Amino acid sequence: MDDDAATEILAATHRALCDRGYADVTLEDIAAEAETSKGLIHYYYDDKETLFAEFLDYLYDRYTERIESVEGEAPRERLVGLFETVLADGEGTAGEQLRTAMLAVNAQAPYDDAIRTRLERFDEFLLERVESIVADGVAAGAFDDDVEPAVAAEFIVTAISGAHTRRATVDRSSDRLAETMTRYAERHLVADGPTEVPG
Amino acid sequence: MDDDAATEILAATHRALCDRGYADVTLEDIAAEAETSKGLIHYYYDDKETLFAEFLDYLYDRYTERIESVEGEAPRERLVGLFETVLADGEGTAGEQLRTAMLAVNAQAPYDDAIRTRLERFDEFLLERVESIVADGVAAGAFDDDVEPAVAAEFIVTAISGAHTRRATVDRSSDRLAETMTRYAERHLVADGPTEVPG
Known about the structure:
Two copies of one chain form a homodimer.
Chain A: H1 3-20, H2 27-33, H3 38-44, H4 48-68, H5 75-87, H6 94-106, H7 113-139, H8 149-170, H9 174-188
Helix pairs in contact in A: 1-2, 1-4, 1-6, 4-7, 5-7, 5-9, 6-8, 7-8
């Protein structure tokens, strides 16, 4: 299998989905975007459902790589860095594309097991990541003893999910939300109360 | 115009959308659900886009009625009551149907001005409602002086939006979230710290 061609089709799927949305995008659109033929798409992917499932795996790899690349030694730096990474805003950024693409496939989740299973992987990845940062912070004494990592993670992941939904549907900037989330973390998780985050 | 027939078409749109999702639902499906003809749907609504715009206005009226019916004298009771109303969970409830339906149309928002404008009305309604409750609470001394109503409302509405998205896409219960939100409000807004909310 020619990996480059298959990957280019997935990248083209991303662009076509951002332009048109899941309901309106066709294999013809994706073929045009990839400058290839519908036949070649069918050669790699049996149908639109298979293509979209593969597309979500492709996005998942990029997404987890970006999140794992967040740097910082201290738990609070890692948490703030994570907020900045997943809430990064602006027209045409990777974050904006991801949100729009996710939103497009989100709508299919209640009706499509393959899509739902994959969206659950995104959700679980972020949940585990946040929970582990918060647990590290509690263990290190950087976050309050009475913070329950699982509960805090659930709340944070829910707010991030809402930020993506609201950014894509009602055009609310998530930049502002990144600030609010940071303030929430500074005020409500950090053991010694509100202070400035370094750099 | 026969209001009953037009309203029955909107109710049928809701059911068809919950069953199939926006991408797959057709005017034929809606006609079958309403036990009427596609011709009659076209008589009331020019096309699928017009029908969906009217459908969102219909949902908006039901949604705002439900939120306005939340009782309670004190700001904290009103806030907790609002969380319970918008996060009410369970298969087949009005809340669950609303979420699924909203999710279906959310995906169209980036590509359709009429839909986006209407979703903005939902968002602004909830934002103003929460901000006004929080502002009342601060003014009455029930919430902390240093709570900024607009910032708290933005955070709360974002978390609610995320709860709806996660409930519909990855099947995370929002019952649990209602508890977490209440705990957030109790812990972080209420002036005298964590206490029990009157039943």
